[in-house]
């Protein structure tokens, strides 16, 4: 799992759908803050793409 902060929900949804493997939005905390979940490597890839897209934070959760 990972927390993504500072991107529109739709942007994160699109990032997840573009990644090969299983990674999906799991919890919409507030607008612009959500948790993604899935297999470890795709979640890491989604975090990297979120940072490239301008996310304030993309933090892996234990």
Terminus-to-terminus distance: 7 Å
Q: How many domain units?
A: 1
In CATH terms, the superfamily is Malonyl-CoA ACP transacylase, ACP-binding
Shape designation: globular
Report helical residue fraction.
Answer: 25-40%
- Taking Cα atoms only, what radius of gyration do you get, to the nearest Å? 10 Å
Class from helix and strand fractions: alpha+beta
The H/E string reads EHEEHE
CATH class: Alpha Beta
- Number of contiguous helices: 2
Adjacency order of strands in the biggest sheet: 2-3-1-4
Total beta strands: 4
Taken as a percent bin, the fraction of beta residues is 35-45%
**Integer average pLDDT:** 98
CATH topology: Alpha-Beta Plaits
If classified by CATH, what would the architecture be?
2-Layer Sandwich
Low-confidence stretches: none
Describe the sheet with the most strands: 4 strands, antiparallel
């Amino acid at each position: 799992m990972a927390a993504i902060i500072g991107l529109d929900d739709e942007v994160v949804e699109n990032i997840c759908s573009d990644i090969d493997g299983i990674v999906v939005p799991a919890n919409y905390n507030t607008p612009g803050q959500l948790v993604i979940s899935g297999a470890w490597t795709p979640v890491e890839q989604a975090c990297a793409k979120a940072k490239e897209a301008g996310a304030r934070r993309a933090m892996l959760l234990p």
